[in-house]
């Protein structure tokens, strides 16, 4: 998805991320269980006058379970974006009802992360960004490469503050 319409003049996207792929493991497993079970049950329906009705019923139940157990999670993953620009952190999620939050990098006070042992092995985790604004904390779950994202976000926030304090005349690395 293009975020050009969200950006200000001379604002550049540094990172454009979805939640980590681990969020799709359980939905894929659900898919891999429901399809064969529904196929087996459909094939095992005994012949008779109610055969078609039972098969349709099995297919409908399987379709509902697939939607609840797989499709909605895939849609949630596909429509969740964590975008870091050189000026702000942008979050967007939702398909029909969209929600979003923008946090200027100059307002960031603290950036921390946490991850479990499994998340550490997979290279993801939770990023907590605290701002000076009244809404305070922004919690980003299942961020891929969470340590790299934290480091990059800190660098960009530091650069944004230096540019603001210098009036945008030069980068802090040039001083």
TrEMBL record:
InterPro entries: YdbS-like_PH. Residues 77-152 form the YdbS-like PH domain. Keywords: Membrane, Transmembrane, Transmembrane helix. The chain crosses the membrane at residues 21-41, 53-71. It comes from the Bacteria. PANTHER family: BLL0215 PROTEIN. This is PH domain-containing protein. The lineage of its organism: Bacteria, Bacillati, Actinomycetota, Actinomycetes, Kineosporiales.
């Amino acid at each position: 998805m293009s975020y050009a319409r969200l950006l200000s003049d001379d604002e550049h996207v540094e990172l454009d991320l979805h939640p980590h792929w681990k969020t799709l493991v359980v939905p894929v497993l659900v898919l891999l269980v429901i399809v064969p079970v529904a196929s087996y049950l459909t094939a095992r329906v005994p012949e008779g006058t109610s055969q078609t009705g039972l098969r349709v019923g099995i297919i409908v139940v399987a379709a509902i379970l697939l939607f609840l157990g797989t499709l909605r999670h895939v849609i949630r993953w596909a429509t969740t974006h964590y975008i870091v620009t050189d000026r702000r952190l942008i979050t967007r999620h939702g398909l029909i009802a969209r929600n979003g939050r923008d946090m200027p990098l100059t307002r960031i006070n603290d950036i921390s992360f946490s991850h479990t042992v499994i998340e550490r092995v997979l290279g993801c985790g939770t990023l907590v960004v605290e701002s000076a604004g009244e809404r305070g904390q922004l919690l980003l779950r299942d961020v891929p490469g969470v340590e790299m994202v934290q480091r990059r976000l800190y660098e960009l926030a530091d650069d944004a503050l230096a540019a603001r304090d210098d009036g945008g005349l030069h980068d802090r690395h040039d001083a």
